[in-house]
Structures are given as C-alpha cells and as structure tokens.
Amino acid sequence: MQQQNIPIHTLVDMYKRGELRLPEIQRHYVWRATRVRDLLDSLYRGYPSGSILMWETDEPVPTRDFAIAQDTNAFAGRKLLLDGQQRLTSLTAVLNGEPVTVRGRKRPIEILFNLEHPEGAPTEAVDNDDDSPSPLTPDDEVTDEAEDSADTDQLLIDRLNRRTFVVASRTLQAQPHWVSVSEVFASSDTAILKKAGVSSFDDPRYQKYLDRLMALRQVKNYSYVVHVLERGMSYEEVTEIFVRVNSLGAKLRSSDLALAQMTSRWPNLLKELEAFQEECEQSWFTIDLGQFVRAIVVFATRQCLFHSVATTPVEKLKEGWAEAKEGLRFAIDFMRSNVGIEDESLLSSPMFFHAVAAISRVKKNQLTKTEQHQMLHWLLVANARGRYSRGSTEGLLNEDLNIIFRTGDLAALLEPVRQQFGRLTIEPSDLVSRGANSPLFSLTYMALKHAGATDWHSGLGLSLTHQGRMHFIQWHHIIPKSLLKKAAYETGEINEIANMAFITGETNRRISNKEAGIYLKEVMEKQGAAALQAQRVPLDPELWTAERYRDFLQARRVALAECMNAFIRAKAGLDN
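User: That's the sequence. What structure does it adopt?
Assistant: Structure tokens below.
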C-alpha cells in the first residue's frame, strides 16, 4: 500500500477535475454544517485531521456522484475515494464557494470566520458526533426563529463572538468582523478589509486581520496522509477493508456498513434505493437510505439487526426489498391518511415505518375495521411515548416485529407499551418541562389540528404542506419568551409545550414579542373565542401575564391532555 502526503488544494483540484470518483459502497454526503465548522477550526489551528484512503484501479466498479458536480475527465474512475468523502466535499464546497445542501436541511452550508477571534486554544469543546437529521434540532448557530424574533438572545451572540468559525446566519453576517470563508478564498485582502471597516494602514486592526486572513488561506496547504490501495485488489476485498476501517473508527453507522456489504454483491442497489427515496419524497416523506437498508433486512430475515447481511443470499435480500417497498408505501399512505402524520418529522422514531410496513405485508393490506383501530391506537400512543426512543431501539423493534410476524395480533402490540410506560393515557403531569424535542410535541400538533385549530390571522387550517414560506406552520410562544426571561423563569418552563401554539410564519412574525394580553385580545376580537379554544388557550385574560405564567401552564396542560386523549380515543374508535 502506497502512502503519499497531498495538500488540500491538490485534493480539491483532483475532486473538481473528476480524477477522484466515489464507489457505490459510499454513503451520501451527510455532514452537518457544524461539522464543517469544526473541521475548518482544526485545520486553521494545525490540529491532526485524519487520513485519506483511495483505491487506484482499472476494474469496472459501480460508482455514484459526489455532492458537488465534477468536470468530465479522461482519467475519471482511476482513483476511488474510500475514506475522506465528507472532509473533501466540505473543503471543496467552502474553498471554491460551491453550494452543497444536505438532504433534509434548509440551507446550503456556509461558514463564517471571525476576524476578531480570541487568541489561544478554543474555549468550547466540539459536540457534533452525530449527523443524523433531526427536524427539531437546528444545525445553524442562530435558528431562523431566533433571527426572525425581536428578542434575539444577545448572550448567544456574545458567546458566538468568542468562536473562530461559526455557521453563517443573517444576524452574524451583518457584523463587519464576520466574513465568509469562501469569500476569503475568492476575494482580495483589500475588499475584505474594506468590508470589515479597515480603510487605512494606520488602523490597529490592519495587520492583525491581514495575518489572520493569511493563516486561513494556509489551510489549502495542509497535507493529508493519503493511503492508496494496490490495483490488484478485488472489489470484494476493498469492500471488506472499507467496512473494517469504518467499523474500527466508528465513523459510519451500522446501516452504512450493511449497505456497503450489500452493494458489493448487488450492483446498482444504491440507484434503486435513491429512486425509491425520491418516490417517498413525492408524498412529503424524507426517509434516510439507512432505513431502506434496515427494511430490506427486516423482510429478508424477519428481524432488524444487520449482523446477518453478509451471510444472507442476494436473492433473499432482493425479495426482501420487493416486500419492503410495498410495505413502506402502505406505511406512508396510512400515516398520512389515517393518522394525520403528514411527514417524518411527526414521528418520534423512523422505526415505526418498519413495524407498520410489516403489518401491511402480514395482513396483505387487508385490515378489518377493528385492526385499523388497533393499529391507530398503538401507533399514536407508542409514538407519543417515544417507544423506540429509549433503551435498546433495535431490541424494542424486534419485540414488536416478533409479535407481528409470529401472531399478527395487533392488540398485543399495546402490552409492551403499557409495560414500558405504565399507562396508555396522557396526564397533565406528562407535559411538565416537556418541550419541542419531546415525542408529545407531535401528538399536541396532531390533536390540535384534529380539534380544528387554525392560524390566528389568516384562518388557515394547520398543515405542514402549505405552499409559500409565509404560510409554513411554526410553533409560537404564547407568553413571549423575552418577557418570561425578564421575569426569571427557567428555560424548561419557558419552552414548555403548554406555552406553544401553532400558527403561520407570517402571523408569528406579526405577533413577535407583543404581550399576550394585547395580541390575544385582538385575536378574540377578530377571530372569536373559538380561535383560542381550538388551540386550547385559557380564555381568562388574568392568566395571560408573566406574573400568572405558572397558573397559565397548569390550566393549559389540563386542556392539552384532554385534547390529546380525545384525539387518540377518536382515532382508535374507543368512543364508539
């Protein structure tokens, strides 16, 4: 195995010219913007940043496209990138100003550099060891909600000003000492310094900023150790090396390693998975490729663990994929039409796809009315309780799959949930200190939508699929966050579900941080008391103040719990 030291600017050029290709066993580009931020910070400081693994071969190997378009090159395909895709794609995007957007995220990745960053070692530890998409966890330094708010937290801005690199936001871009990293590599010092407000050699910031810009540009000269596998190796052997390298380094998820093992024996599998992924997105469901890999395993082996992938015959895997597609189509349609789950963000875990898909195939899409109610009851309660969000996720799914495949008794699915959580109903106490990351948040939204909640200005019904940015549904602090902070309430209290209403982005911005006693009175006058009742907001104006906030929370917890239980009973046919 050869070993070379290759600077970043050469690797980026190889990437862009098409001299590097991506084998099909590789996953998508998945890095969150904060990972790119931390990579740049490490390179800027000269910290170690791992190595690169390539395979130079003339063997016809299935490949896939990088996240950034490449030029056509006569030497394309000679070198395949086995380890280092995330880093090289990130660096190509930032150094060349190439937009790269991660599936399921709002914005292309852009990083800002702080010309006024503190000297010395970083003061904050990096905290991004998971690139799994989460609809409730932003990957921006300052969220859209915070930027659109009149009370953007100055403490947050002050903290970010102590960093060297941050993910771009409108708030930070407006400050002259923050500059785009891509702009640094594309523009002259004069243009950047002028934008930063430095117009004279006599400015005390001039030399400091100049030195820091030069140091940032030196990142291009950082050399990676590049290991090149021998030409004579077979694709199967290279796949085994890929799996071992990534298993030891714990850099890939088990589903990525299973996919690599599958694609080495099943050419063009990745294209099939991506085509089905596009089909699902037509129904507003963005599903990670890893979930399709798990679905194949579920239907090929009747359990969800990946350990048997290498020994399962390809034909068996292909049969499993055919079943999985039909089951997943049913799962999406059932969730949307029967449950009110409009997209994957309302699921507390993607594992529910596999359980519902398994029910579909076991029942051959022929469910009695009783079975439909039983599945609805289980799905709503298990989702709201976070059935697959605690403990051994795979073990819990296997427990449910065993019931489904062995007995087909849908009523029996509720018993493990009862044992896990003690009861199936929602109590007001369950909402105490629970915020947008709680599984109960999704149930709150669906229950209020079912109860007829609408936007407080336009009258639009609730839906995650509204057209136009101004009509997107957002959650809104009923008692304004800024007023509660001034009154010294704890963060958990301020951001509790019981302080959330669902309205459009336009209405959210219009209300901003007005006192609840003012804007709720306006809503009552224009839309009627029913508009507040539908969102289960207490009608007593005395509760609409920061002083009575805890009384407000207590009253609304009771109302929301009643609404959620009524929604579950209606869907499960328990009121009949």
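DSSP finds 25 helices and eleven strands in the chain.
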